[in-house]
Amino acid sequence: MKKFLALALAVVMVLAIAACGSKPAAPAAPAAPAAPAASAAPAASEAPAAPEKKSVGVCIYKFDDAFMTTYRNALQEILEGKGYEVTVVDGNNDQAKQNEQINTFITQGVDALIINPVMTSAAATIIDTVKSAGIPTVLINREPTAEEMAVYENLVYVGANAADSGTYQGELILDTETKGDINGDGVVSYIMIQGDPENIDAQLRTEYSVKALVDAGMKVEQLNLTRGDWDREKGQTICANDLAQFGDKIEVVFCNNDDMAIGALQSIQAAGRTVNKDIYLVGVDALDAALNEVKAGNMTGTVLNDAVGQATQAVVSMEDLLGGKTFAEGEQSIYVPYVKVTPENVDEFM
Ligand code: GAL
Question: Are 168 and 298 contained in the same domain?
Fold first, then answer.
């Protein structure tokens, strides 16, 4: 009897096992989670890991620059707000130092780079470096040539069309009552306080501000052109020297940026001259200090160099690159527009 029972049990077990094999969904095999396994299996090992933060290395040509300070603060805020791990470094206006910083970021394995080159002429080397490392890169503020950028399709430049800012400065002067010819001698006599002359923005603003006057049929005379390296104190000293040398002959003070214009304004006021009465003064950037002076009538005008707009676009472009988007030659420069700022519209920017 015992033997029979044992045999009967064995038969039942064999049948049950056979049934399991042929019918996986049978209730006899509840432990095998066949259905969910198919869709959930790959996720099971990933599920506990938190989404990894992407890291971005940001190289600024120098921290001690009024416009680039607003720009880098905006950049950092936008990137951090989007959950990126951000490191911003100061190139101290030293290209060799910046090259090292770029190499360090590459060694650390950052996911993307945003670089404001110290020197326009260093762009080709920088592009070679980031290309070899295969890192998606956004260049900002110093525009390389289209040919230089074309060697790496995972790279774009985000900035503004510098020639336009020069043209707008010229137009600000043309929009005045005397079109810049305060003394009515038929010639607009000006001084040019230039940024760093190696910088493409400085070159184009210097050229196009005067070109706008000439294109409008004005005669012009350049009394002096001096490099002020974007710096307020230098702007002040240069303007003081020029006022001492040329006095009332100066009708227009063109400054390649606002920080130098603010410096120039101090010298203009110290010399007893009055902006918009016996001298005109224009800058570029729309720094807060300059907006206040435009509103008060102490600057003829400025041109908005949209730091927040450019920082926003730089991040959008970086995300495009991270998403695998590539850019063909001629499509690698992305411009955020400049805007003329006068007492009439200054409130919109404050
Ligand atoms: C210009 C800006 C200047 C200075 C320079 C640095 O676009 O107008 O104020 O910041 O960039 O490269």
Answer: yes
Ligand 1, pocket residues at CB < 6 Å: 65, 67-68, 141-142, 195, 199, 201, 230, 257, 284-285, 305
Averages of pLDDT over runs of 10 residues in the chain (350 residues) are 41 38 37 40 55 93 98 98 98 98 98 97 97 98 96 98 98 98 98 97 98 98 98 98 98 98 98 98 98 98 98 98 95 98 97
Question: Measuring CA to CA, how many Å separate 214 from each of 16, 170, 183, 220, 301?
Answer: 99, 9, 18, 7, 19
Closest CA to 252 of 177, 340, 180: 180
What distance in angstroms lies between residue 106's CA and the mean position of ligand 1's atoms?
26
Query: Atom 12, ligand 1: which residue's CA is nearest?
Result: 141
**DSSP-assigned letters across all residues of 28-54:** T-TT--HHHHHHHHHHHHHTTSPPPPP
238 Cβ contact list (under 8 Å, min separation 6)? 191, 193, 226, 228, 260, 264
What SS3 state is found at 58?
Answer: strand
Structure tokens at 168: 């707008």
d(CA 349, CA 75): 19
Query: Is 41 within a domain?
Result: no
Domain that holds residue 74: 55-160+307-336
Number of domains in the chain: 2
Which of 62, 65, 72, 73 maximizes ligand 1 atoms within 8 Å of its Cβ, making it the mutation to test the pocket?
Answer: 65
Residue in the block written with tokens 């002096």: 224
